[in-house]
Amino acid sequence: MACVTIYATLLKNRQGEEVNAMPRKKIDLPSIEYMSILDENGVVDKSLEPKIEAEKLKTMYRYMLLARRTDERMLLMQRQGRQGTFPQSSGHEAISMGSIIHLQKTDWHVPAYRELAGMLYRGWPIETTLLYWNGFEEGASPPEGVNDLPVCVPIASQLLHAAGIGMAMNMRNQNGVVMTYFGDGASSEGDTHEAMNFASVYQAPVVFMCLNNQYAISVPLAKQMRCETIAQRAIGYGMPGMRIDGNDVLAVYQASLEAVERAKAGQGPTLIEGLTYRFTPHTTADDPKRYRSDEECKLWTSREPLARFKIYLGNKGIFSEKEFADLEEELDTQIKAAVQKAEAMAQSEELTNPLGIFDHLYNDIPPYLQGQRDELKNHLESLKKNAGVSPQKHQAGAR
Fold first, then answer.
1. Has 79 been annotated as catalytic?
2. Residue 388 region, left (φ>0) first, then alpha (ψ -120 to 50), else beta?
């Protein structure tokens, strides 16, 4: 018993105070809140409604709608053979736009691959996205003037990048925030837990935005974890956590505002779980009918974010019916122009030159790779000389 008593008195709480380990006591832990402000019928809870100026609301709707219409156009192009396989973002616009609106250009945006609305808002041209999902790595180049990382397809690896950026900002005494995004499937990856742990230990200014669309491709959330929410995992890392209606852009706006303010005040990271749904396939190569019911899809489609936000803006008099229609026409024209530009760029000599595969890997190309480049160059010149086929046309045909 003496050994037990000594061990007990050595236990300390987080404040460094000695505590007695006996008898067994309940540990008080933070609770997890759920927040919804604007429901699927456009009804708003006035007591929770954030004060957002009209112009900002217009901007949020514009980019949410632009992302939706771009996503729909890309699907049509993919079915026509004009676009490669890609993951759709329809249904996720509220989480992306409701949070990204709080970032300054000097803050960091670290996306996964369903953050089209936020990327468009940050200045990524539509044609860049089209090029990326057609296999051109030039589409991964962030626009000038913003601290953005490219789309990240390897699941959850971007969260480590975000945690590292946040830690570096602290080391440099930079007052900013890192906003990063991931899905419910990614929450089961080891990278996610490592990133959250490091961000918490080092009080990195990172906002972890989870797009919980309830399926990791075909695996439902219930088969991924026994937790009731993803947000409650924040408790284990000693950071605030909240679950919100991820189809409610007002709830996303308020929750992420609070998280950004905490981060910039030096209070460390936050985990926000946005409950949403992808009413499209996981990617254009997926068939969700094999694992989801039509009834489930119909239910969640009725809760989608754009329709309720449109009702809200109309009720507030921010948009008239004519202004809604004019915006649709304006964005359609913008998307059509971007498609034409992207398809012209995809045929340009700069992007179709096969020798470009050796660029952008090394600052100084190693000798063995230079040898391979020279060999390919000689081969292409031989093709051109002997068969009258230009290297560019040869590569375009291969695509």
1. no
2. left
Residues 289-345: tens digit of each pLDDT: 999 999 999 999 999 999 999 999 999 999 999 999 999 999 999 999 999 999 999
- Domain edges within the chain: 33-345, 352-398
pTM here is 0.88
Determine which one of 92, 122, 278, 292 is catalytic: 278
Is position 237 annotated as part of the catalytic site?
no
Task: Give the residue among 109, 13, 98, 110 at the shortest CA–CA distance from 59.
Answer: 98
Active-site position among 122, 282, 292, 303: 282
**Catalytic status, residue 291:** yes
Q: Hey, what are 238's tokens?
A: 């000693």
For helices 249-264 and 93-100, angle between their N-to-C axes, nearest 10 degrees = 40
CATH architecture of the domain formed by 33-345:
3-Layer(aba) Sandwich (3.40)
Residues contacting residue 83 through CB under 8 Å, at least 6 positions apart:
74, 77, 130, 133, 134
Annotated active-site residue in 7, 34, 79, 291: 291
